[in-house]
Amino acid sequence: MPDAAPLIGVLGGMGPLATLDFLRKLIASTPAQRDQDHVPTVVWNVPQIPDRQRALAGTGESPLPALLHGIAQLNVAGATRIVIPCNTAHAWFDALVAASPAPLIHIIQASLDALEAASAPSGAVVGLIATRGTLDAMLYQPHLKARGIPFVVNTPEELDSLFTPGCYAVKRGELERGGKLLEQAAQRLVERGAARLVLACTEVPVGLAHIASGLQAISVDPTQALADACLAYWRQATQPPSTLE
Question: What digits encode the pLDDT tens for the residues 32-44?
């Protein structure tokens, strides 16, 4: 039986604008000459998934049932790989992998691969700008430590006054306000020695891009890293087999 045609499933809606940002980056990164050269996707962009930060804080319902439903729908649609353009949702990654016939591409692994591929001095400190849920769930920190990469994170006060209101401003469509708050949160990390930034919340690249922040120049964008991983999979899956001579 022939293998299924490669199809990227996108478990989105967290938030909707971040999902669209991922799709835009996937399209922009594809060296297409015509429509048919682009990576095929099927998108579950349903924003009614319960809030991930509140769930991890113990103040809201678990998003897992809704996430599992989205995974099931993408598998029914024929996805051969699934991605989640939301860092915090990866707190439930193992449960989603266990429920999905289609393998999932991990945004954090893709991001750290991109970080290591970027030119930076050996031992350079990384600023990890992320939701409280992502930080509390330790989604990035053990992987950074395992790779010997030193890092700094925002203080609880900075999360409360800068990052969290900035993140939710982007979700509301207040991109100017959100971008400025998120830039301030990132700047605090630079002031504490960060030479590179990992924008480990998919609202952050949207906000910083809107205000044309200069901090983008030293940043690794996990949304872009995820798009690049999808493109690499697509190329590998559609590459014709080499001809033996």
Answer: 999 999 999 999 9
Give the Cα separation of 147 and 27 in Å (integer).
31
Measured in whole angstroms, the distance separating CA 143 from the mean position of its chain's CA atoms is 15
Q: Which residues are catalytic?
A: 86, 201
- CA dist 233 and 87 (Å) reads 20
Greatest alpha-carbon pair distance for the chain in Å reads 65
The pair of three-digit structure tokens given for residue 20, joined into one six-digit string? 């669209």
- Interacting residues of 94 by C-beta distance below 8 A, sequence separation 6+: none
Nearest to 93 by CA among 137, 39, 127, 148: 137
Strands (E), 38-166: 41-45, 81-83, 126-130, 151-153
Nearest to 82 by CA among 236, 229, 240: 229
What region does 237 belong to: left with phi over 0, alpha with psi -120 to 50, or beta? Answer: alpha
The pair of three-digit structure tokens given for residue 27, joined into one six-digit string: 């399209």
From CA 245, how far away is CA 243, in angstroms rounded? 6
What pLDDT, in 10s, does the model give residues 97-131? 999 999 999 999 999 999 988 866 777 999 999 99
In terms of pTM, does the model score above 0.90?
A: yes
Question: 136 burial class (0-12, 13-18, 19+ CB within 10 angstroms)?
Answer: middle
For 236, list phi and psi in degrees, rounded to 5.
Answer: -65, -40
